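The protein record now logged underneath.
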Amino acid sequence: MFGLFKSDPTKKMRKELKQLQEKAMEMQRNGNIRDSSHISQQADELWNKIQALESQNK
């Protein structure tokens, strides 16, 4: 019951992850592979942080 009002710390991170993945996809479609891989690497690092936070909360 008390967790009802607690905000999800990963919600903002998941939104940012989605934006990074979409940006990487657009760069790849436009032929900008180098920048696409850089953005994808940032997304992977963010995903690892999300997973670490979720494993701590369980």
Q: What stands out?
A: The chain has a mean pLDDT of 91. Helices lie at 11-29, 33-57.
